[in-house]
Amino acid sequence: MKVSLRAIVIVTTAILTAAEPSGAAPRRAAAGGSFDGLWSVAISLSYGSCGSYRAAVRIAGGRVEPAGGDFTAYGSVNRSGGISVSVSSGAGSAFGSGRLSGSRGSGRWRTSGGQCAGTWYASRRG
Q1: What is the pTM of this model?
Q2: What is the separation of C-alpha 120 from the centre of its chain, rounded to a whole number of angstroms?
Q3: Residue 37's CATH number
């Protein structure tokens, strides 16, 4: 089954920001240590035919929010910056995990059916 680049891009865009590991408390805004804000995410492909992409996401109150686009994202960032997220669009879904630290982050993602997988890198904007 060939998955469209747009569907995977939309799905993987939010992979970059997060669903917290079970039992972890959501990260709350804290002076000097919050992950809240706009992040630029670069999504790279390791295998499959989904392509690579760059997009913006927002973390607010430790929760992931799409910063534009036609996708949904569910997740949060835990206290130590560990992230995992589920992202979906009308054409598919993907899952990702990784870590944010200071103004950078990185991790891995894959589509729900395993057709494509890769890595993501993030940097805080502004």
Answers
A1: 0.71
A2: 8
A3: 2.40.128.120
Domain count, the chain: 1
Beta-bridge mates of residue 53: 43
Domain that holds residue 56: 5-124
Tokens 């894959």 -> residue: 110
Cα→Cα distances 4→8, 25, 91, 101, 113, Å:
6, 35, 8, 32, 13
Confirm if 83 and 19 have CB atoms less than 8 A apart. Answer: yes
Residues ≥6 apart with Cβ < 8 Å to 43: 9, 12, 13, 15, 16, 52, 53, 54, 55, 109, 118, 119, 120
pLDDT tens digits, 79-117? 889 998 888 877 778 899 999 999 999 999 999 999 999
